[in-house]
Amino acid sequence: MATKKAKMILGLMAAALIVFGAVYLGISFTQNLGKSATQISTKNAAKSLEKIAKDITVTKVEPKKGQVDLGTADLKSSLPDISKYPAQVNNSTPNYIEIFSSTEKAGSGTDGWLTEVGNDFNKTAVIIDGKPVSVRIRGIASGTGADYITSGKYLPDAFTPSNELWGEMLKSQRVKAVLVKNRLAGNVAGILISKAKHDGLVKKYGSVNIKTVTDAVAANELQMGYTNPLASSTGLNFLVTSLSTFDSSDLLSAKAVKGFETFQNNIPFVAYTTLQMRDSAKSGVLDGFILEYQTYANSPDIKSDYVFTPFGVRHDSPVYAIGDLTAEKTKILNAFSDFSQQDKYQKLATDYGFNALNDYKSESAAVSGDVIGQALKLWKDKKNGSKNICAVFVADVSGSMNGERINKLKQSLLQGEKYIGKENSVGLVSYSDNVNINLPIGKFDLNQRSLFAGAVESLQANGNTATFDGIAVAMQMIQEEMAKNPDLKPIIFVLSDGATNRGHSLDEIKGIVEAGKIPIYTIGYNADIAALQSISSINEAASINADTDDVIYKLGNLFNAQM
């Protein structure tokens, strides 16, 4: 009887140990805490990938060189016609000014404060020099608006970006940008940190500010992301401010560069969009990210989980006159700026999340446009830290891509490659019924660029669509390349119409993609965007709709952020 009871106890203990082990390993795998568990999952993923690859017919295409355009990317030609960004407020009189406004105040709902002010201004029938006047307001991201102005593609009469950094950059590009009003409505940029992580940083550092954040990231104690500073006001502010924490007297000194590179080594990624960054935070990939207070105030789901810490220059929506305005247009701009400051409209701004944190003063010294420009060049060179990118482009050449889609795909790659740094490594795969390796991965020097151009030019559309076979082959190529150089950062770009009717399924490779942690950016051509987004969402990448005439501009921003 005692022996039977002892056996039963031993059995229960063994079962408990098995359950404990399963739970422990599950937690380790999910949170990437257990080193051995991560190694096992990676090993299993590699075996699964190898097994899938054996089922795929792969043809290695003999690479042929093509013509390389050695000119730099032409910003003016890549920008779409300004009609891509329709006016939120249309002028109601022949005598008017056009204003480019950042989107957090020139949209709709709580993002439509300036839209409402503009519509009311036009209804008021303001008279200047005996004539009724009005405004046209075009909502456009600050970085994009600055690109139109500096390229000369389209010049508004006035520009109200989120912060003053854009005005300084315009001046450094010899654009006449005269500050008319330094504040339309108050706002600040901030770092959002999960409450648990915030409490931990306070316990260690005593408080949380931009310096403790950069120190914590450099020490690999905080996983955070930020948006592309070439396009995002908050991202630009974060870049300039973080550089100042390493050397406040000289943002471009050797000390600042070294500190920034160490910091950047521990940044998981620079987001293409704020939405991509927020999704990464929600999925648990990031402990923190950056956002303007006005957006934070209008996002209860974010406010409940994250603590807001202001940083950098204020985002008070300054107003600049662009170019040589006539006396009449100058009067209209001044009248509109004053109109927006009435108590009625400032209360509306407050209701919409602006004018909070008025006591916060910029912690950064004034920075000239020339220094900002050099900081952006530094960022372009150092944004991947000490690691270079290993990217494979996966092109859909099935029959459904025939005609305009394949032509647009080829144009996208041939124009977009100008934004890819020569220190990165690039390969090209195409797929239809089966998979072709059109270009093995290689350093993107002039020779590889020529081979890339030739491979792209030779693409022809025909057959069925084995999307996930193409992705699997690309992953295997990257895996083999990283075995030789583990310090590379892998990325896959899938260019497709989103339809899949052959080969392996998303379910079959999803676990492998997750374990490999390779972000897969998708670019859709007259595509099933939802299908492509389901691929990109696996590892918090972004999906781009290429059906518009701004695809080259979009790809330029994407490659600037990632390549």
Report the oligomer: single chain
For the record, the CATH architecture of the largest domain stands as 3-Layer(aba) Sandwich
Shape: globular
CATH superfamily of the largest domain: von Willebrand factor, type A domain
Query: How are the strands ordered across the major sheet?
Result: 1-16-15-14-17-18-19
What's the structural domain tally? Answer: 3
Low-confidence stretches: 1-40
For the record, the CATH class of the largest domain is Alpha Beta
Number of strands: 19
End-to-end separation: 71 Å
Overview of this structure, please?
- The chain has 563 residues and is of the alpha/beta class.
- The chain has three domains: 45-72 and 387-562, von Willebrand factor, type A domain (Rossmann fold); 82-185 and 316-351, Periplasmic binding protein-like II (D-Maltodextrin-Binding Protein, domain 2); 188-314 and 364-382, D-Maltodextrin-Binding Protein, domain 2 (3-Layer(aba) Sandwich), CATH 3.40.190.10.
- It is built from 22 helices and 19 strands.
- The chain has a seven-stranded mixed β-sheet, sandwiched between helices. Strands 2, 3, 4, 5, 6, 7 and 13 form a seven-stranded mixed β-sheet that branches.
- α5 runs parallel beside α6 (165-172), α9 packs across α10 and α17 packs across α22.
- The model is unreliable at 1-40 (pLDDT under 50).
